Amino acid sequence: MGTSSDGFSYVGPHPIRFEPPDIVFCRPIGRISAADVRGVLDFNSTIAKQIGRGTFYLGDSSRLTGYSIGSSLQLFQSSPMEHIRGTAIFGENFHQRMQNSAVLRAIRLLGHPMNRLPIETFPDEASARAWIDELRRKG
User: Fold this and answer.
1) Does some domain include residue 47?
2) Residue 1 counted as domain residue
3) Of 114 and 94, which is predicted with more confidence?
4) Whole-model pTM?
5) Residue 4 lies in a domain
6) What is the total count of domains within the chain?
7) What is the pLDDT of residues 59-99, one digit of tens each?
8) What angle separates helix 69-77 from helix 34-51, to the nearest 10 degrees?
């Protein structure tokens, strides 16, 4: 995984980077596969270990076109709570909001451990970053 001049590395076609002090920013492009999810989780885990604490995942979904079924299964089978303190997603279209809402409802209804992880969607990047700042202040 190389790093470009703008600080992004890539998980498949998806640019991802660490933004100090504790944000992992990803801009998925196209469809997300199970391997992509695993790669993003691995990237996040590596950063969390390097900085000695969990990170906040910030995702720009404006160029995302869809999710494979395997991507949701990969997320359910992993334990991102170990390395992620919160997830903020922005830039979703209507279809993506519906998909994400369904996944989040399933997480809550099934009592999945991810239920303890703060996950929110926002209309824009500024709102998402403000929410992360608030979570950071709360500890």
Assistant:
1) yes
2) no
3) 94
4) 0.88
5) no
6) 1
7) 999 999 888 878 877 777 776 678 999 999 999 988 888 87
8) 30
Beta bridge partners of 122: 90
Decide: 17 and 5 in contact? Cβ < 8 Å: no
Asked whether residue 3 is domain-assigned, the answer is: no
**Do residues 129 and 120 make contact, with C-beta atoms less than 8 angstroms apart?**
no
> End-to-end distance of the chain based on CA atoms, in angstroms?
32
For residues 125 and 128, what is the distance between their CA atoms, to the nearest angstrom? 5
Joined tokens for residue 104: 């989040």
Question: So what's the pLDDT on residue 60?
Answer: 97
Give the span between the Cα atoms of 79 and 104, in whole angstroms.
15
57: CATH: 3.30.750.24
Give 35's contacts (C-beta < 8 A, 6+ positions apart): 12
Give the pair of three-digit tokens for residue 21: 């002090």
User: What integer is the mean pLDDT of 1-24?
Assistant: 88
Distance between CA atoms of residues 10 and 39, nearest Å: 9
Structural domain span for residue 61: 9-138
